[in-house]
Amino acid sequence: MRLLSIFTIILATFPAALLAEIQVTARFNPPRIALGDRTQYVIEVSETSDRSQPEVERITSLPIPESNKLELRNGRTSKSQQTRIVNGAAEYSVTQSLIIDASAPGVGDFTIPAYTFEYKGQRLRVPAATLKVLERSADAGPSRDELIFLKADLPEKLYVGQMVALDLKLYVGEEAQLRGLNSFDRSADGFTISELPEDYREGVEMVKGRRYRTLTWPLTLTPIQTGEQALSFQFALTARLPGQNNNRDRFGRSPLGSSLFDDFFGRSERINVYTDALSIDVLPLPEEGQPESFSGAIGDIAMEVGTDSDTTAQGEPIMLSVVLKGSGNFERITGPSFADSDDWKHYDPETQFEPADSLGLTGSQRFDYVFVPQRPGKLSIPETRFSYFDPEQEEYVELTAPPIPVEVSPAKNNFSPTPPPPTRGTPEPDLQLSKALSSEEALLTLDYRPKEPRPVGYGILRSPVFIGLNILAGLLIAAGATLLYRNRRHRQDPRYALRAEAKQALKAARQGYLEALRADDAETFYKQGELAVRHAATVKTGRSMQSAESAQIEALLSGQAAEDCRAFFETANAHRFGGNAEKAYTDAQQQIERILKAL
């Protein structure tokens, strides 16, 4: 009985021993800022165990009280692990950090009170955290938000499906130095937005008396949901900023915790910049006055219609071309539709778009329809109708083209008549295939002995020329089959096609940075070197890595190659964004070669 009691106690305490100890902390980093600066609200959930590494349950949201008057945005998470061994005993710990950018509306103390949340079936308490905001002195330097900020000028309203251009513009004050762009993100559930292009426009602008270097990326924006739709854009970047805390006491100490050396040397930081809160009122397309031919086109469009011939024969195809020109959401435009007819059989069109700008907002879209006449005579290709919605005039516009007459001749018979069957009459006499032999002829046949047959063409088959021709024909057939196989895979396997294109581009990029090295052209060297690494990563993964972050490429590598990748991209970014005239190519070239070899 005593043994049973001990066993029961062990079973009761065993699950508790496996549970990791969980601690929750909350703080502002930094806890004191000057008015206009930003800080970070950081919640850390730490778990420790002496048995094994605790498993993290990802936290996606927290019930933070809204009565603190702070503006909280741009939440993100990070995770760190640690193992310590003291006197032979191991202790495992993992910390999940939730980081939220915070800004205050004025000076004073701002407190986020304590609250609770669910985690792994437990109710955990987040302690209160307080932020102190000080008045910025008149002689203080610009805040970080004044040195670097992001803007996107958007219209107040759009119609659902309307495609517009927008410029995303990064402002960098002349006191700051941009060292690299680490990542780009956007929050726009109610929109489709084009990918961030690799190239950008540089310029200089004056804002409130301060001189800024600007980097502008053109994008397209298309709303897909009606109502008030919010969106925002964000860059994670590395920049060198000057010291900003000039509000010091008589001993040269700053109430914000910086030193006199901040202003002299400056500091490099990894920071997040994002647009202010943006929203667009998305209107539905009006139902009143919507033509039957409307299929979703929005913009300002003209139509041209024509055929490749005005005569044909029954069963012979004729092509009808419809060209739509102007500006609009061409990626969503479909060609005019035609009703079925006893006179014509038509097929879905072939489509070709020729953009007139880099974003594809203006251009011409061509639809080629095949019409096949079903009878001879004077026929007409049906009337063509196409409509679109004009957002400027806020009305539908229907374009029409009249029927096109076509002269159709009878079908051409290019076959020979079948020869008539033989006439039936008196049956032909049977051929006498054998006859009786006389006794002398029968005796002569006894002396007949067949000879061994002589191989026909035996000498030709062993001829070197014949063998060589057969080998050549076999090689040609194999090469043709390989070419057909590759062409088929190009058409049917996008990953294979992407890898094949990347291999060719890799050769060109490698040749490019070697030529730039000989020409002492730093800008081209780093540009072509980056392209070579990205093409090699594309070949390895089968996914396009042209716009991937350097950290994604680094994740494909290990050891020295990973360190080379990080160092090369940091040097390239410093040259690209900081304008450093780096001429020491030897290390960079060796880094590229090691990266390419590892990939």
Automatic annotation (TrEMBL):
Keyword Ribonucleoprotein: no
Xref: InterPro entries: BatD
Stretch list, region Disordered: 408-430
Keyword flag Cell division: no
Record-annotated membrane-spanning stretches: 465-485
Keywords associated with the record: Membrane, Transmembrane, Transmembrane helix
Protein name as it appears in the record: Protein BatD
Annotated organism of origin: Coraliomargarita sinensis
